[in-house]
Amino acid sequence: MAKEKLSVVKVGGNVIEDKDALASFLEGFSKLEGKKILVHGGGKRATHIASKLGIESNMINGRRVTDAETLEVITMVYGGLVNKNIVAQLQGLNTDAIGLTGADINSIASKKRPVKDIDYGFVGDVKKVNYKSIDKLMQADFTPVFCAITHDENGQLFNTNADTIASELAIGLSNLYKVELVYCFEKNGVLMEVDDDDSVIDFMDSGTYEILKHKGVFHDGMLPKLENCYHAISEGVSRVFIGNPTIISNKEQKFTTLFL
Amino acid sequence: MAKEKLSVVKVGGNVIEDKDALASFLEGFSKLEGKKILVHGGGKRATHIASKLGIESNMINGRRVTDAETLEVITMVYGGLVNKNIVAQLQGLNTDAIGLTGADINSIASKKRPVKDIDYGFVGDVKKVNYKSIDKLMQADFTPVFCAITHDENGQLFNTNADTIASELAIGLSNLYKVELVYCFEKNGVLMEVDDDDSVIDFMDSGTYEILKHKGVFHDGMLPKLENCYHAISEGVSRVFIGNPTIISNKEQKFTTLFL
User: Fold this and answer.
1) Residue extents of the structural domains in chain B
2) What biological function has been recorded for the protein in this entry (chains A, B) (predicted)?
């Protein structure tokens, strides 16, 4: 029997921060047909609020360390303020949303990132996606909305990368669905020339990706995203779309499709 | 057919604020048999964080007004920090919790409190409890954990009294269950003498309540709680227990039982 389609849509912080862009994106998301899951980043809101609360950002080698106070701010801002306002807005658009962290219904279990040279603090690497529990919500016609927080199954919350959460959810739910993973970000797609927003690569299979990667086409911010995407594809996700937030509603515009 | 039992347990801010008391309470809650729902207050955490963020409490006639900034703090603290940490702790105790505001699965719709003499801002009075949707979660063996936030079904979140949320949930779910409502607070029960913690009234029917109320036995903080409780009982809730947080696990201790 052919699997039913499921869209897992990740939307980034730049959209979250822009009230009008978010409203327009959520309207597009609410009209998306079939089963769907939203994963959102947090944007700079958490940094602003942490700074107002006098919590300093602790950066090591350019990467943020999540100490106990920072985790509290992330839980407040991503898990509360951002997530619940998105849920309320989706309800206003007749989408029966339910906001989740990985702790809720034990949906995403993680373990603390191992300390090698750097201790990232309360950062969790995904260990298990409880896709059967998540599917119970979808079978009840609820639309899950995930923020980028997971837990260790023993009472501890963790900060986890939102792109990773989206790809791990997509992989887990591939056991039950034909999953399409959609990454919405500030560019029109994967670009051949980083400064030319019209240089969108329309289609890219994993072989082409390896060649372009070794040619140095992709910049530092794009590489982990693409690694995430091809990891998802290699683990059973049917295809990945990358583009600006309007791609979920406007099929005529440019975007990148990744496949095996 | 006899209805299945459901416990709706409200725990107050004084427990939420005390790490050990909260851990002990959640252990008791996790062991409570049968279907159950937790409703939590927020404690003074929101006030502390609002003050750190430079948001002044706006009080009119001794009552807090929820302006837009205060609503943001409440959404962060109650909906994010407090709710998600409780969910994670319950997961660690093998209770498959799911954290909710009234916006999630449109579980509790409210409308802005009408402006008479005072405009309370973003304060919502409960309009409808969507007990069928909440029951879908319980049928999937999830344990709902509610914070004191509702929504207008059109994108706006509202601040709502946690005692009221507990009683409205209890009333709504009485359509499907034999509901026992449990209020955990700082006293051992309803007291005959406000300063004597041993003067717990064991049982009180609504007739006795009316008599004692007119005698002036109950102080200002207790009266709205009791009004809430008897309203719940008159609307179909089977009985209400009031006592300190240990009453959910220790049956030998004193508490008050309210009934019709």
Assistant:
1) 5-259
2) Catalyzes the ATP-dependent phosphorylation of N-acetyl-L-glutamate.
The closest alpha carbon to A177, from A259, A101, A99, A236, belongs to A236
Give the pLDDT band (50/70/90) at residue B252.
confident
- For residue A91, the chain B residues in CB contact (below 8 A) are 103, 106, 151, 153-155
CB nearest A80 (choices: B80, B133, B142): B80
Check: CB of residue A38 under 8 Å from CB of residue B40.
Answer: no
Q: Which among A54, A106, A142 has the least Cβ separation from residue B105? A: A142
| CA A138 – CA A173 distance, rounded (Å) | 11
Query: Alpha-carbon distance B99 to B88, whole Å?
Result: 9
Which residues on B lie below 8 Å from A72 (Cβ)? 81
Mean pLDDT over B5-12 rounds to 97
CATH topology (fold) of A5-259:
Carbamate kinase (3.40.1160)
Question: CA of B206, closest CA in chain A: separation in Å?
Answer: 38
- Using one digit for the tens of pLDDT, what is the confidence trace for A153-200? 999 999 999 999 999 999 999 999 999 999 999 899 999 998 898 999
Closest CA to B76 of A83, A6, A160, A199: A83
| B153: closest chain A residue by CA | A92
A207 is in an annotated binding site: no
State whether A157 and B105 contact (CB < 8 Å): no
Buried/exposed code over A155-164 (b: 16+ C-beta within 10 A; e: otherwise) = bbbbbbbbbb
Q: Using one digit for the tens of pLDDT, what is the confidence trace for A89-135?
A: 999 999 999 999 999 999 999 999 999 888 999 999 999 999 999 99
Check: CB of residue A71 under 8 Å from CB of residue A89.
Answer: no
Per-residue pLDDT for B62 more than 70? no
**A43 known ligand binder:** yes
Report ipTM for this prediction.
Answer: 0.96
Residues of A in contact with B105 (CB under 8 A): 96-98, 142
| Count of beta carbons in the 10 Å neighbourhood of residue A143 | 21
As given in the structure block, the two tokens for residue B217 are 């036995």
CB distance A101–B99 less than 8 Å?
A: yes
Give chain A positions within 8 Å (CB) of B127.
none
pLDDT category at A87 given cuts 50, 70, 90 is very high
Task: Write down the pLDDT at residue A62.
Answer: 66
B170-227 pLDDT, tens digit per residue, is: 999 999 999 999 999 989 999 999 889 899 999 999 999 999 999 999 988 899 999 9
Angle of the A222-234 helix axis to the A206-214 helix axis, nearest 10: 150
A45 is in an annotated binding site: no
Question: What is each CA distance from A50 to A5, A16, A54, A84, A90, in whole angstroms?
Answer: 39, 17, 6, 19, 27
Q: What is the DSSP letter of A200?
A: B
Count the Cβ atoms, other than its own, within 10 Å of residue B78. 28
